[in-house]
Amino acid sequence: MWCIIKEILKRERERINMSKIYNVLDVSLYVVNYSAKKETPISNLQLQKILYYIQAMFLVNKGVECFKEDIVRWTYGPVVKEAYDEFRAYGNNKIPKEAQYSNISFDNKTNNIKFEQKKLDEGVFLPEDIALMNSVIEAYRNKEAFELV
User: Fold this and answer.
1) What's the whole-model pTM score?
2) Between these two residues, 61 and 123, which has the higher pLDDT value?
3) How far is CA 54 from CA 5, 106, 130, 138, 148, in A?
4) d(Cα 94, Cα 33) in Å, to the nearest integer?
5) What are residue 101's phi and psi, to 5 degrees?
6) pLDDT in tens, 88-131
7) What is the C-alpha to C-alpha distance for residues 16 and 5, in angstroms, rounded to an integer?
8) Whole-number Å distance between alpha carbons of 27 and 9
9) What per-residue string of b and e applies to 30-57 under the rule 16 or more CB within 10 Å gives b?
């Protein structure tokens, strides 16, 4: 019996180690660009809800998170603050296809804040993760923002 349990734990560890946890801004840019490419651009509010569903789908299907950033509760539902802040300039409007996002970091050596534009590299995503994200995007990209709320 112990051998069976040990083998199950070993397989589970291998499965989790093969998974990747992404930056939410990479995932956001992927969602925005995918939606724009399908000619149904989404708003920031729609993006927030789709991110929530992607995170849930990863947890249910893979047992790991898609992205490491926290999801917080706001008046109109779940929000990932980092993604919200990146796209807030669009207000209620649709977000056009984006090539890059702002990355802000702190350099401990120089005590300086570093600003850079980071381009999306779709190669960072595992093929099975792209398929999972696409299934969520397809299910929700055509829904109105307040229908998702």
Assistant:
1) 0.77
2) 61
3) 30, 29, 11, 11, 13
4) 11
5) -140, 165
6) 999 999 998 876 677 677 778 888 887 777 777 788 999 999 99
7) 17
8) 29
9) bbbbbbbeeeebbbbbbbbbbbbbbbeb
